[in-house]
Amino acid sequence: MLQLLAEATTTCRLCGLHRGRTHAVPGEGPPDAKIMLIGEGPGFHEDRQGRPFVGPSGQFLEELLALAGLQRSDVFIGNVVKCRPPQNRDPLPDEIATCTQTYLDQQIAALNPLVIVTLGRFSMTLFLPGEKISRIHGQPRTVEGRLIVPMLHPAAALHQPQNRPLLQADFQRLPAILAQVEHEQAPAPVATPPATKRPEDPPLQQLSLF
Ligand code: URA
C-alpha cells in the first residue's frame, strides 16, 4: 500500500503544486516503523532528489534522531504536502486538505505507527488544531487512540539557534515515550485462575448483596 501511494504521488495533479515540482516526495521508511515523523513539505533539495529531509534540516534531523538512539532507516519520514511549494512558501489550506486526504491519511492507516512525531506547526495542526507549538512541543497527546508528539521543525533551530536545545531535549525524551506506549499496548498477562477455591473467597450470594 505504501508503495502504491508513493507511485501515485509521482503523477498526481490534484493541486497546483504539481506544476512546480521536479519530483514528488512521498516519504520513506520501513513499513513496520513504530515512529512516523511528519514534516511540512519538500524544500529545494527534497524536490531535486524525491526524498524527504535530505537538505540542511535533514542533516540536523539525523543528529536529533541519533540523540534518541535512532537512525533515519528506523523511522518513516513523511510530509504534510508531497510537492514543494514555490519558493518554499507555506502550503495553502486547500493544498494541505487535498494532499493529506489523498496520501497522508492513507500512509498513516497503512503504517499504523505507535507514535507520530509532528515537525512544525502545519503537521501539528492536523492533529492538534488551535494549539501553539511553542507551548506544547515535547508533550505527548493521545489523538484518536494514537500518541502524537508535537515538536518544533528542525529548520526552526537552523534559523533561530535558541530552538536547538529545545528540539534536542524533546528528541532525547522520545525513547521513554515509545517505551511507555509499547508497555501500555502490550497484551495484559493472562491471570492464571487458582486451581482450587481459596478458603477466603466469599460465597457468591454474599457478593451479590453489594
Ligand atoms: N522540510 C520539511 O518539512 N520536509 C522536508 O522533507 C524537508 C524540509
CATH superfamily: Uracil-DNA glycosylase-like domain
The termini sit apart by 53 Å
How many DSSP E strands?
5
Derived from helix and strand composition plus strand pairing, the structural class reads alpha/beta
Under the CATH scheme, the architecture is: 3-Layer(aba) Sandwich
Helix content: 40-55%
Written overview of the protein:
The chain is 42% helix and 11% strand. The chain is α/β, with parallel strands linked by helices. It has one domain: Uracil-DNA glycosylase-like domain (Uracil-DNA Glycosylase, subunit E, 3-Layer(aba) Sandwich), CATH 3.40.470. A 5-stranded mixed beta sheet has the order 2-1-3-5-4, sandwiched between helices. Strand 4 (141-143) and strand 5 form a beta hairpin. Helix 1 (2-10) runs antiparallel to helix 4 (93-111). The longest helix is centred in the middle third of the chain and has 19 residues, at 93-111. It is globular and about 70 Å long. The N and C termini lie far apart (53 Å). The relative contact order is 0.14. The chain binds uracil.
Blueprint (SSEs and pairs):
Layout: H1 2-10, E1 35-39, H2 44-49, H3 56-67, E2 76-79, H4 93-111, E3 115-119, H5 121-127, H6 133-136, E4 141-143, E5 146-151, H7 154-159, H8 164-172, H9 174-185, H10 204-208
Parallel strand pairs: 1-2, 1-3, 3-5
Antiparallel strand pairs: 4-5
Helix pairs in contact: 1-4
The structure holds uracil.
